[in-house]
Write a structure and sequence with these properties.
With about 300 residues, this protein is mostly beta strands. About 0% of the residues lie in helices and about 55% in strands. Strands 1, 3, 4, 5, 6, 7, 8, 9 and 10 form a nine-stranded mixed beta sheet that branches. A hairpin with a 2-residue loop joins strand 9 (about 115-120) and strand 10.
Length: about 300
């Protein structure tokens, strides 16, 4: 897999988009080790609307890549390795920038371990880590988002759910950090969420979460029939979140989620609203088929 051994490769690879798929998707990984499991905005690149984003990979073996940087611009970009210093996570599924703290991030594993990271250049250093609060029986996490309002910080995360019999559980709590960097959560609230699309036994009702500047909760949902697909996914407007001056977190889910877009053949596991833009950056983890990225205008007011 060339991009795992080269520092930087082109994102636009002729002939790599699956037949019948939208050519706006750009391939960034060639097999199960190169999928995108979560996305965080890092900063703007030098070509106007371009952006640098960090993406996590759900690799599980020691020494495999956990984190990469993607430069996404008009037609051409690159992907480069980020070295991981500190205890290695197993199955990273989400990452989010800490508002107001440049270079600092929170990453989450599928089993609910939260890592606080400091990213400097091409190195990510683990500052501290701890489990999520209130983990439920059978919870499997793929999403994490942070919201800053009124000088307070709140976190949203979700058990992904599984088919018709298990909706996603969306959790919310206030968040602060101890002086040594450990994440500390306040009282936790829970809401059940069912995706409008896709359906079927393989549905993951929430595969990632992002929050717009006005407080809209944007979620991706996905269906996975196995390591070779077929895959299916969608992005929806799920509701709103508000954080009070006292730090209280209030989540209001829509009675009927608004479907913003559907993406047959792809398994979206990363969605990130890009600041100062209506664009959502989307990333897929298509298992043996690799990973793809693109943007869509889903994050407007």
């Amino acid at each position: 897999m060339a991009w795992l051994t080269a520092v930087t490769v082109l994102l636009t690879v002729p002939g790599t988009v699956p037949a019948g798929a939208d050519g706006a998707w750009r391939k960034v990984g060639g097999d199960a080790r190169g999928g995108v499991s979560g996305v965080a905005f890092e900063g703007r690149s030098g070509d106007g609307p371009g952006a640098h984003v960090l993406v996590v990979h759900d690799n599980k073996r020691s020494g495999q890549r956990r984190l990469s940087r993607i430069t996404y611009g008009e037609g051409v970009g690159g992907i480069s390795a980020i070295a991981w210093e500190g205890p290695e996570p197993v199955d990273l599924e989400a990452i989010e920038a800490v508002p107001g703290t440049p270079g600092e991030y929170v990453a989450l594993t599928g089993r609910g371990i939260v890592y606080r990271l400091k990213v400097t250049g091409s190195t990510a250093t683990v500052v501290d880590y701890s489990p999520l609060p209130a983990i439920g029986v059978g919870d499997d996490f793929e999403s994490f988002a942070l919201v800053a309002r009124n000088g307070k910080l709140a976190a949203l995360w979700a058990d992904r759910g599984a088919g018709a019999d298990r909706p996603a559980t969306l959790y919310a709590a206030s968040l602060s950090f101890a002086a040594w960097g450990q994440p500390q959560f306040g009282a936790v609230t829970r809401r059940a969420y069912r995706a409008a699309y896709p359906g079927g036994d393989g549905t993951r009702h929430i595969s990632d979460i992002s929050v717009t500047g006005s407080g809209r909760i944007i979620v991706s949902s996905a269906a996975d029939a196995g390591d070779d697909g077929p895959f299916d996914s969608a992005v929806s407007d799920a509701g709103r979140v508000a954080v009070s001056a006292a730090g209280g977190v209030r989540v209001t889910l829509a009675a009927s989620p608004v479907l913003l877009g559907t993406f047959p053949q792809y398994k979206i596991e990363g969605v990130e609203c890009l600041p100062g833009s209506a664009d959502a950056f989307l990333g897929t983890d298509d298992e043996n088929l690799g990973g793809y990225v693109r943007t869509m205008p889903f994050c407007g007011a």
